[in-house]
Amino acid sequence: MTVPNSVVLAGLGEAAPASPAALAEFLVNQDLELSGGVSGSGGLLKTGAQTLTLSGINMSSGPTHIQAGVLAVSGVVALGRRPLEIADAAKLRLN
Fold first, then answer.
1. Following CA atoms 76, 77, 82, 84 in sequence, which dihedral angle do they give, to the nearest 10 degrees?
2. Domain locations in the chain?
3. What is the pLDDT of residues 32-75, one digit of tens each?
4. Helix/strand/coil (H, E, C) string of the chain?
5. How far, in Å, CA of 32 to CA of 29, rounded?
6. Which of 21, 32, 68, 71 has the fewest beta carbons under 10 Å from its own?
């Protein structure tokens, strides 16, 4: 499935401590592509065994946590400038 619209990840603000509540979780049980831009101050939590593909421009500033499956990105601008954590069972694929 492809989501062509932009996605905004809402965070808790600069003063708030990082917590799972500040992350937008994508539990991916079938391949999913976000082809629109990703923005906001929130983080992204990738769970589920399938592939989440980011192919739009990523301007979000929150952290990215890949706990399971594959996070595929099309170019460096799709990955953004954010802290990245990859669990042992997860993969990051750069296209």
1. -40
2. 23-94
3. 888 888 888 888 889 899 999 988 888 888 888 899 999 999 87
4. CEECCCEECCCCCCCCCCCHHHEEEEECCCCEEECCCEECCCEEEEECCCEEEECCCECCCCCEEECCCEEEECCHHHHCCCCEEECCCCEEEEC
5. 9
6. 21
The answer to whether the CB of 65 falls within 8 A of the CB of 42 is no
**Among the listed residues 75, 90, 4, the one whose alpha carbon sits nearest the alpha carbon of residue 44:** 90
CA atoms of 47 and 43, how far apart (whole Å)? 13
